[in-house]
Amino acid sequence: MALAAENPADRVDQLILLTERLTELVAAQALAFEQQRPQDAAGLVEETSRLANIYRHESARVRGNPALLAGAPLVERSKLTRATEAFDAVLARQARSLEAAKIVTEGLVRAIAEEVALQRQRGAADAYGPSGERTAKPADGSAITLNKRA
């Protein structure tokens, strides 16, 4: 989907609005990850993806044809530049937040895997029934699936 701009000034205005909205969405997602609440970021994924696709498409169009913005007032183009710089900063923040969440998640998975391995090495203790007789060993209580690629 492309912007439906009537002239360069209109295109710049639309790009500013698009960039500012994407900045808000990405900042909200980064905050959710920083607060360890990824479920809050999930509700923003659809709109963020849709707008990011439009942004990507329009950025490529402008790179390919700078004349699309050439007639816009310098003040508006400067505002677009500042909006883009803010967007880039928020993307960097989100990348750091996602990397931190990934590291924490991998650490948890590794700790769980190590605990399961220790439990298996120790073996299950003998179980005794109510009258003191030996019963079958209890089933392995490690009902978890591990994926080493995670």
Brief description of this entry?
This protein has helices spanning 8-34, 38-42, 45-64, 67-70, 74-122, and strands at residues 127-128, 134-135. It is mainly α and 150 residues long. The chain has a single domain (8-123), classed as Methane Monooxygenase Hydroxylase, Chain G, domain 1 (Up-down Bundle), CATH 1.20.58.
Model description:
The chain is an all-alpha fold. The chain is built from five helices and two strands. A two-stranded antiparallel ribbon has the order 1-2. Helix 1 (8-34) runs antiparallel to helix 3 (45-64) and helix 1 runs parallel beside helix 5. The protein is rod-shaped, with a radius of gyration of 27 Å. It starts with 7 loop residues before the first helix and ends in a 15-residue tail after the last strand. The mean pLDDT is 84.
Helices and strands, with pairings:
Layout: H1 8-34, H2 38-42, H3 45-64, H4 67-70, H5 74-122, E1 127-128, E2 134-135
Antiparallel strand pairs: 1-2
Helix pairs in contact: 1-3, 1-5
| Number of strand elements | 2
Q: Which consecutive residue ranges, at least 5 long each, have pLDDT under 50?
A: none
CATH topology assignment: Methane Monooxygenase Hydroxylase, Chain G, domain 1
Q: What composes the largest sheet?
A: 2 strands, antiparallel
Which outline best applies? rod-shaped
**Structural class of the helices, strands and pairings?**
mainly alpha
**CATH architecture grouping:** Up-down Bundle
Identify the CATH class.
Mainly Alpha
The string of secondary-structure elements, in order, is: HHHHHEE
Give helix % range: over 70%
